[in-house]
Input
Amino acid sequence: MLRFSAEPGKGSLFRFGIQAEIADTGSVNIRQPARRIIAVQSGQTVWRILIADDKSDNRRLLIKLLEPLGFDLREAENGQEAVAISESWEPHLIWMDMRMPVMDGYEATRRIRNTAKGQATAIIAFTASAFEEERSVVLSAGCNDFLRKPFREAELFDIMSRHLGIRYIYDEDEALPDSGQTKKDHRNALTPEAFSALSPEIVKDLENAAIRGDINRIAELIRQISDDNAALADALTDLSDEFEYTEILRLIQT
Output
């Protein structure tokens, strides 16, 4: 309940109450720097992973991350291919892009779930949507979990471990840098001088892509920028990862 009182010439006083429980400090999850995965522990199943995405760059990225760890991988360029491969190959897990031609990920997931073999498959939705409401939509379609693009490497491996029980081997001596500090360091590259050094065509294209929220085009432009200014590209990647398109526009238009 909200209460307030006011006195002319002095101001207003607001009071409110909420119900809350005192946290057990022993149960608070303190975020630790992610550890680099170097292998999958021996004695486990050779996991079959299907990557369903119409964008070849997205498929190549997952292959680059998963192939060195010994996963058995196959690709599908649309939902129809994903359904066919799932039926014949029986993957343990499917990374399912939800926006594909021919048949989208929603329909493909429903069809896979309607088969006896598909009931045992973990299906993880890939979506570029920044809206939390999308989570309930993909889960109702039959997906087990949800990962937004662009994603962080640790998020992808955590989801796979959660749904398949995969046990990893970590490089204990090589922890990934703390993401908060890394981002802070990257943001130092976001200077007017850095943007003025870019070609007008790239700046305009980046501005239009940010207005549209076109995550794939933004990623392409960042790759071009990285050839000349890797620090600026890293900083823009951080902004894109957090869907901070308004901040990108502000920096461009400053």
Residues 200-212 form the longest helix (13 residues). The chain has two domains: 35-175, 179-253. Confidence is low (pLDDT under 50) at residues 25-33, 173-183. The longest strand covers residues 168-175.
